Automatic annotation (TrEMBL):
Residues 74-107 form the Lsr2 DNA-binding domain. The keyword DNA-binding applies. It holds the Pfam family Lsr2_DNA-bd. Keywords: DNA-binding. Coiled coil: none annotated. This is Histone protein Lsr2. Residues 1-59 form the Lsr2 dimerization domain. It comes from the Bacteria. One of its GO terms (molecular function) is DNA binding. The keyword Cytoplasm does not apply. InterPro entries: E3-bd_dom_sf, Lsr2-like_dimerization, Lsr2_dim_dom, Lsr2_DNA-bd. Residues 57-78 are annotated as: Disordered.
Amino acid sequence: MARRTTIITTCDLCDKETENPSKVNLGWNRSQWELDLCDRDFAAVSKQFDAWVDQGRKVTNRGGGGGRRTSPPSDLESVRAWARDQGLDVKSRGRIPGSVMEAYTAAQG
């Protein structure tokens, strides 16, 4: 037996079938939504939003804050050298255990 799967895409506003919906991303009060809209509803929503967008300010992602903070390689070498002087077992590469980092920070004052 053969199976055939048909995907029918519909407009999220009028529920009519549409072959190439426009994806619209919306953000409001720290929440995000996505709508698939037919050409007619996309034009209507765009017209409504244009009035709001014209009055607002564009906000860009300034980056930063999203990634992990890492120490410069020279600092890590200092930590490794200090740990070896203290008789602690640290590898020459890779992550330094948190307990070693805490001890180093405490020793530095």
